[in-house]
């Protein structure tokens, strides 16, 4: 019997993306799988059910979840939906099992092969499967557009009959994938852009995109492309220098993250109080608590004339292209164990072994025997 792959319709509030597109459906079929898609799964990403049918998929029936060998999703289904999945099925997506105890228990109770893609090792070979990077790019892009909309000024320099308008000064905090995309987008809009990151190796990347590297004399180079957490002394010095600098900044876009931890607080309430009225802060890190002390996740607030936005689900705002990238990432990961119409899990492959949850060799050995 062919391996059955099911594409879920997302149920999380605000989620508009989908884990497979007609393009990746064709690739899954070519790998020997039978693909079923839940009705309406791609509508919010601009993909009709007919488009999936034309690609060779079938629409999922009522029993599809209980029969699927491989289940693809963007965000984890709720615990009650997990309970209806086939025992031992493989579940792939941004699952965050540690974030919800009921979800974690449901995943383990069904004996699922769980692959939270946010756990994927950040290696050169894994880049084609890296959903964090692909989705961060969209988030960085959208964050700047939100900032431009909220700012009571032009981003580019303009020469008009009423005089010359100077360009907005934009500071991007954090130079990961999201931050670099934000720098590039702000430059395209004509702003005067600076990038700040405690990792000194990001200077070249920032400057290659037309931004100016803001050097505050603090370095926190970490592992895996992320920053380490700063010491109290380092943080105090960073805060002092940053507070002085942002008095002249018009827009701040915050993107700094530390894996597995709440977002570091970089922009304090006191710094915001020192900014010019009409200034804007867009905190892309709102989902993990925010880089700004005044950020309220999902809200836009004003404090002393400064607007602070904490948008959520930024990647979903660009659902069409975000889904295209996410689906390709997912297919590339599934291709590690779906070959010639059969599932084969090679636990010596670090991408499978380190992405799997929980990472337990005993469980893996048992699963290898079952496969």
TrEMBL record:
The keyword NADP applies. The keyword Chaperone does not apply. It is an enzyme of class 7 (translocase). It catalyses: NAD(+) + NADPH + H(+)(in) = NADH + NADP(+) + H(+)(out). GO terms for molecular function: NADP binding; oxidoreductase activity; proton-translocating NAD(P)+ transhydrogenase activity. Residues 6-139 form the Alanine dehydrogenase/pyridine nucleotide transhydrogenase N-terminal domain. This is proton-translocating NAD(P)(+) transhydrogenase.
């Amino acid at each position: 019997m062919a391996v059955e792959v099911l594409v879920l319709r997302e149920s999380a509030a605000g989620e508009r993306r989908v884990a497979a597109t007609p393009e990746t459906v064709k690739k899954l079929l070519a790998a020997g799988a039978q693909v079923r898609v839940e009705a309406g799964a791609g509508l919010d990403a601009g993909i009709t059910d007919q488009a999936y049918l034309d690609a060779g998929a079938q629409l999922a029936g009522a029993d599809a979840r209980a029969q699927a060998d491989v289940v693809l999703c963007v965000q984890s289904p709720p615990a009650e939906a997990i309970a209806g999945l086939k025992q031992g099925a493989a579940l792939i997506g941004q699952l965050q099992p540690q974030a919800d105890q009921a979800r974690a228990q449901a995943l383990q109770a069904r004996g699922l092969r769980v692959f939270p893609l946010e756990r994927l090792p950040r290696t050169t070979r894994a880049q084609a499967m890296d959903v964090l990077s692909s989705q961060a790019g969209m988030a960085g892009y959208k964050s700047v557009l939100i900032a431009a909309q909220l700012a009571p000024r032009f981003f580019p320099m303009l020469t008009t009959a009423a005089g010359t308008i100077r360009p907005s000064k934009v500071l991007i905090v954090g130079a990961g994938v999201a931050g670099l995309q934000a720098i590039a987008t702000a430059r395209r809009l004509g702003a005067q852009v600076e990038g700040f990151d405690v990792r000194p190796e990001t200077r070249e990347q920032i400057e290659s995109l037309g931004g100016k590297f803001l050097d505050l004399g603090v370095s926190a180079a970490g592992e895996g492309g992320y920053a380490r957490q700063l010491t109290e002394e380092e943080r105090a010095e960073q805060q002092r220098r940053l507070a002085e600098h942002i008095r002249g900044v018009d827009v701040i876009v915050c993107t700094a993250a530390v894996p597995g931890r709440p977002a570091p607080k970089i922009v304090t309430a006191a710094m915001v109080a020192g900014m010019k009225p009409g200034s804007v802060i867009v905190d892309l890190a709102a989902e993990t608590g925010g880089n700004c002390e005044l950020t309220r996740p999902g809200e836009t607030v004003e404090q002393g004339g400064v607007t602070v936005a904490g948008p959520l689900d930024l990647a979903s705002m660009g659902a069409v292209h975000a889904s295209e990238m996410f689906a390709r990432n997912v297919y590339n990961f599934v291709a590690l164990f779906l070959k010639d119409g059969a599932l084969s899990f090679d636990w010596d492959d670090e991408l499978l072994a380190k992405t799997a949850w929980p990472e337990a060799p005993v469980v893996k050995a048992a699963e290898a025997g079952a496969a």
